[in-house]
Amino acid sequence: HPDASEIEIYALLLEETATWAGELEAAEQAQEDLTASMERAVDVAAEHLEITMDLIGAERDRLGLARDLEEAEWDLQDAANEYNEVLKENGKDSREAARASNDLEESLEKVGEAAVDAAGDTATHAEKERARNTAIMSTIATMDGPAQQAALNYIYALNEIPPEKQTTITTLVAEGKDKGAEELINTLSTPVI
């Protein structure tokens, strides 16, 4: 039989073993908790990365649409210059003038379409119409000669602007009051988008 001191040593060893077992169990639980926290952190980081990538994609798309609009505006300016040149060289009743007029109108349509696209899917009908009118009017402001009047005639027809207001708008553009002309067009416009 063990004596009292051996029993005491065994008791101490058992107590120490129980303490270590408890500490080991606590450490294992802490490790499990840490692993679960890390997995949650990885999941959250993955969600944030996905959201960030979606935002980057949306921004890339927005920039692409803005670039498309800018290119359409440059093409419109080229068509306006060509229109003025063709009228000067061939007269307004020539086949060349008719072709240049069609090119000018197509360029105006492309600017309008690119502006509507750039306004985005969440834009209201009225916001898209304003975007279209703003893009076209900003380009008209840079034009001169017959092309400017032809472009104004296009936007008048597009927005169903009454003849008595067309004179006012043409005067505003001639005076360099492009924003005033644009606001009047937007106020008077009949939705067509």
What does this protein look like?
By secondary structure, this protein is an all-alpha fold. Helix content is 86%, strand content 0%. It contains six helices and no strands. The longest helix is centred in the first third of the chain and has 87 residues, at 4-90. The radius of gyration is 36 Å and the shape is rod-shaped. The termini are far apart. The model has no long low-confidence stretch (mean pLDDT 90).
Outline the fold blueprint.
Elements: H1 4-90, H2 95-119, H3 125-140, H4 145-159, H5 163-174, H6 178-188
Notable features of this structure?
193 residues, mainly alpha, 6 helices, 86% helix
Largest sheet: none
The tally of helices reads 6
Kindly report the average pLDDT value.
Answer: 90
* Spans of at least 5 consecutive residues with low confidence: none
Determine the strand fraction and express it as a percent band: under 5%
Helix content: over 70%
User: From the alpha-carbon coordinates, what is the Rg to the nearest angstrom?
Assistant: 36 Å
* N-to-C series of helices and strands: HHHHHH
Can you tell me the overall shape? rod-shaped
